[in-house]
Amino acid sequence: RTATPEAYLKSDLDELVYAVSEAWGQPCTNPDCADRSATFIDTQSHPFNLVGPKCDDIGMDCLADTQDASYQFRPGHYFDDGQVWAVVGTLGTETGNATYVSLGLNQTYMRLGAKNVDGSALEGSVSDFYGGRANSDKLYVYYFTRDCKGLEDLTHGFCMSVEATELVIPAGRAGTLVERDYMAVGTQRGPDSELTLPSRVLRLLVPAD
Length: 209
Description:
Strand content: 25-35%
Number of helices: 4
Strand order of the largest sheet: 1-10-4-7-8
Distance between the termini: 49 Å
Number of strands: 10
Structural class: alpha+beta
Helix content: 10-25%
């Protein structure tokens, strides 16, 4: 597994997370937004190794070989009290680390894929917004909330509604955000996840009327 190192985008990504909080009129206390955001977890590196051959080596019940993609996730997202979750990350199809990107929401308690965003739907989600960011073509911002209606001026249409149904995210249940980068360019393997930049998720609230 190989990858194009994405570390050079870290400051751009951190600044974008803060710019999103400002755009919503809910600025973070700290410039890095550590008070209101969390970093996605890489499942293919220490200490997790939940998929692939490293998982086999430590005796885990693995998800087959899964070397065609990198996997990162962030659990614990509720939707019943006006929460809006902004996912800010690098777009693997633009950094050279994926031919296909999937951003999904899993129903945690059933281990069920509930919603999915094709990577092509993430394109352009930064370029014309948030004050003209550096490397905007290599970054994305996408929102998940109960109902995107009425939030178009803030989400710019890059938003997915999360129904309170049994097979999506029922009331009182949490969802897990999952990102996959499939097949680094020129290979038949996912990118080396230790060289990619983990996404961030920022907690926002639907603005009061």
